[in-house]
Each structure stands twice: as structure tokens, then as C-alpha cells.
Amino acid sequence: MKQPILVVGGAGYIGSHMAKMLVQSGHEVLILDNLSTGFREAARYGRLLEGDLADTALLERIFGETPVAAVMHFAALSQVGESIREPARYYRNNVANTQNLLETMLRHNVRRFIFSSTAALFGEPEYTPIDEQHPQRPINPYGRSKRMVEEMLADHDSAYGLRFVSLRYFNAAGADPEGELGERHDPESHLIPLVLQAASSRQAQIAIYGDDYPTPDGTCIRDYVHVWDLCSAHLLALEHLLADRESNTFNLGNGQGFSVQEVIDTARRVTGRGIPADVQPRRPGDPAVLVADSQKARDTLNWKPRFADLTAMMEHAWSWEQQKGTAW
Ligand SMILES: NC(=O)c1ccc[n+]([C@@H]2O[C@H](COP(=O)([O-])OP(=O)(O)OC[C@H]3O[C@@H](n4cnc5c(N)ncnc54)[C@H](O)[C@@H]3O)[C@@H](O)[C@H]2O)c1
Ligand SMILES: O=c1ccn([C@@H]2O[C@H](COP(=O)(O)OP(=O)(O)O[C@H]3O[C@H](CO)[C@H](O)[C@H](O)[C@H]3O)[C@@H](O)[C@H]2O)c(=O)[nH]1
């Protein structure tokens, strides 16, 4: 029997795409998700076990019954503003529950782990593009919770031989190129889905959070990376670990930044709709520019993003919004 990959958080945005790519690549997939921010309909690939990482008895049962080859860990709370208001929930779910998972894995001799980390652990950038050596000074509990897990992973590697790959995504965007899956957060906070909701009149307008940043057009610059390309990095990371290579950490982005204004302009072009926009005050905690240096992932994992172009990300996200968005 093939040893399955356990995708924790596989009913969420990125995890659901990952489950699809794994199945298409010939892997058995088991999803563990509590459906707190994910959706049953998104877990279309693999077998869904509905449950919570806080439930250590359930974790014990899963690893006791199934010879898991590796774990991909997407489950987390990931709203920056919420993390400032309710840090305890973030440390509980993102840190303590990850520790439950690691301890159960190690008890069952499962030693391959791929972690969804984030650019938020760098805080306000000191230079750009941001490489893996950039200082880590997260400015909110969400970013701190992810940095803590990275530190835990390094300690578990030295002490217990855990082999991990930590992937720090910049701004995940886009949707399944085949149109079966897409981004769904409720409430939605991310720029691209909100711009497209405004294009389809599900929102009256898009708010631009600040146009007085030190950037060419005054709006914040981000490095958008296609969800399918994030998944292909995970697949390469899995091959890396299955080949018994060492633990490693990678920044994932395209190395090219787009301003909020450029994102809105691209959405207007792709959708052919006007999309009203309104400048509002800055959102607390938003750095002016976040752009990744992903050379290490290209060199070590041989990662080659297929959809580096913002227009392609927007087209896939728009086709998802048109197909599913209006039904929610
Ligand atoms: N979306 C981005 O731009 C982005 C950027 C950087 C990092 N990340 C990280 O990537 C990961 C996935 O992000 P996403 O946008 O797909 O989020 P998401 O909210 O869509 O998915 C997270 C999934 O985890 C599940 N989950 C949460 N807590 C759980 C628990 N205790 N037990 C079981 N399941 C649980 C949720 O129900 C959901 O299905 C997160 O760890 C996030 O921090 C996302
Ligand atoms: O309605 C909106 C929503 C967003 N923005 C702006 O658009 C940019 C992108 O914002 P998103 O909320 O889409 O993404 P973030 O850059 O805030 O956050 C993403 O990257 C972070 C790392 O810095 C975290 O990992 C987080 O989980 C991930 O969603 C920001 O400048 C934001 O101010 C707007 O102007 N209007």
C-alpha cells in the first residue's frame, strides 16, 4: 500500500489546491481539517477527516492507523488584525496545536514535515528583495507565531531528527488553472479576491489602504505568487525530503512587486469592468514594500513558477469569482 501524505488544513485555500496536485501526481492524500475557515466542498481530492489539531486522541488514532509518509501543515489562523486583538487564539492554534502534531508524528516515527510559513515573520523590511538571511522581526502575533514554529522545527531537527522544509509564502493569489478550486475566505481580507468581488458587484467598491507610501504611485507593493506555483514548491519539497535530504527554509515569491493601484488596473483590464476604488487610511501593520528573493528555492529545489505573470493570476481568480463567487 502507498503511504499517504497527510495534508492538515487541506480544506482551505492553499491546502485544497495542494491535495489536488498531490492526487494528480499519484500520491494518496488524507486531509485533516476542522472546517473552521475551510470548506467541505474544497476538500475534493483525497479523504477528508473532520477534526481538530487540538484533539490529541484523534491525532494518535490517525498516526496509529495510517503509515503516513509525510505531513504538509497548512492549518493556521492567518489574519494579521485578528491576531493583534486575539493573540491567545493565535498562539494556541498556530503554535501549541503544531506542537501536538509534531509530538504525535515523532511518536509514530513520521519525520518529514512541510510547513506553511510567511513573509510576515520578517516584519518591516530592512532591504528588498528579501532573502532567507533577512532579519526576522515580526510586528504582530501572527508573524511571531510562525517564527516560533520555525524555531521549534529547528530544535526538533537537532534533537529528534525531524526533517522539515519551511516555505515562506509572500502573497498567495490566483486559483486552480482548471477552475475547480479557488480562494475562499469568510470574511475575505485579501486584495485580489476583494477587487474581483467589486468587479462582479458583490462589493460596492475596493478600498485602497493608503496612497501616501514611499512607492512610485504611493500604494503598497507586494509580490504575488500563484497558488499552483506554491503547490509545485511543496511537491518539490516533498521529493527533497523523500530523498532524505536535509531540512531547509525557502522564501517563495516571483521577485517582482505590484502596487495596489497596479493590481486594480490589471483587474480592470482582465475583467473589462470599471471597479470603483476609494482611497482610505493606511491599514495598521502594512509594510510599504514586500518582495521576495527566491533564488534559493530555484537553485536548491529547482522551483520554476509557471504563472509568474500577474495577468495569469488575475484571469484564474476572475474565472473562479465568476463561476463560484456569485453562488456564495
Ligand atoms: N493566503 C496567503 O496569502 C498566505 C500567505 C502566507 C502564509 N500563508 C499560510 O498558509 C496556510 C494556508 O493559508 P490559507 O490562505 O489556505 O488559509 P485557510 O484559512 O484557507 O486554510 C487553513 C485551513 O486550516 C484549517 N484549520 C485551521 N485550524 C485548524 C485546526 N486546529 N485543526 C484542523 N484544521 C484547522 C481551516 O479550517 C482551513 O481549512 C496558513 O498556515 C497561512 O498562515 C498564507
Ligand atoms: O481591501 C483591501 C485589501 C488589501 N489592500 C492592500 O493590498 C495589499 C495586500 O493585502 P492583502 O491583505 O491581500 O495581503 P497582505 O500583504 O496583508 O498579507 C499576506 O502576506 C502576509 C505576509 O506579509 C501574510 O502572510 C498574510 O497571511 C497574507 O495574506 C496591502 O498593501 C493592503 O493594504 C487594500 O488596499 N485594500
TrEMBL record:
It catalyses: UDP-alpha-D-glucose = UDP-alpha-D-galactose. This is UDP-glucose 4-epimerase. Its EC number is 5.1.3.2. Pathway: Carbohydrate metabolism; galactose metabolism. Pfam families: Epimerase. It comes from the Bacteria. The keyword Isomerase applies. PANTHER family: UDP-ARABINOSE 4-EPIMERASE 1 (PTHR43725:SF53), UDP-GLUCOSE 4-EPIMERASE (PTHR43725). Residues 5-253 form the NAD-dependent epimerase/dehydratase domain. Homodimer. GO terms for molecular function: UDP-glucose 4-epimerase activity.
